[in-house]
Amino acid sequence: SGIKFDNYDDIPVEASGKDVPEPLLEFDSPPLDALLLENIKLAGFNKPTPVQKYSVPIVTNNRDLMACAQTGSGKTGGFLFPVFTELFESGPSPMPEKAQSFYSKKGYPSALVLAPTRELATQIFEEARKFTYRSWVRPCVVYGGAPIGNQMREVDRGCDLLVATPGRLNDLLERGKISLANIKYLVLDEADRMLDMGFEPQIRHIVEECDMPSVGNRQTLMFSATFPVDIQHLARDFLDNYIFLSVGRVGS
Ligand code: ADP
Ligand code: MG
């Protein structure tokens, strides 16, 4: 199934929460970064999808987000566009002192995207590569079922946005190869699938690692096709004064 992009304006969108920002009707600068817009154009994207229209201004206005939207609705751009805008424009952040003594290399992401499977993590990484073209931001991806050594070497070469499956990320955390002390953006993509796969303990541990703050407020964005009670609990525990976005028909 999925959404046809020629008629996605018909898709109903509901946004609730305090002070919901106005949706973004076109890919425009501002709020989006000019280099990012060039990369969006290179990717052949002409207009934001409904989830992108709402999520971009929500995130650029520093709000947490719980978004329910079906597969194919453009969620990846919905979180990558505002996060890259912020990263492109703020430039590399200096490594916090606490970490300098511990980490000699640059496995020090500002943004973390958790995804349930190798396939989905790779898709997000490939999108991230397109949209960071000619920018200072270097994306990396780590997932289980593949040699960890190559992934560690990639992370050591510099990692500003990390896309990860929860199990492999925990493995790298245990080995001291990655620090989450600098995370400004945490994205849980396909959160319902991650819970179905039994990743809740790993996710909670990862969020605790992000909560050892050195940069102040972390922004958290959750995406899910459905909104069952266990996802509602994660939203309650991880999100702060969030906006709830529901795109299309959402099951529970
Ligand atoms: P989801 O994560 O919601 O399943 P994706 O972010 O993977 O959806 O997007 C689904 C497909 O639509 C991808 O092939 C993506 O490149 C494409 N797409 C996303 N946003 C746009 C857009 N604004 N314009 C055109 N195509 C888009
Ligand atoms: Mg997706």
Automatic annotation (TrEMBL):
Coiled coil: none annotated. Residues 25-53 form the DEAD-box RNA helicase Q domain. It comes from the Eukaryota. A motif (Q motif) lies at residues 25-53. Residues 56-245 form the Helicase ATP-binding domain. Belongs to the DEAD box helicase family. DDX3/DED1 subfamily. This is RNA helicase. It comes from Saccharomyces eubayanus (Yeast). The chain holds residues 128 to 379 of 618 of the full protein.
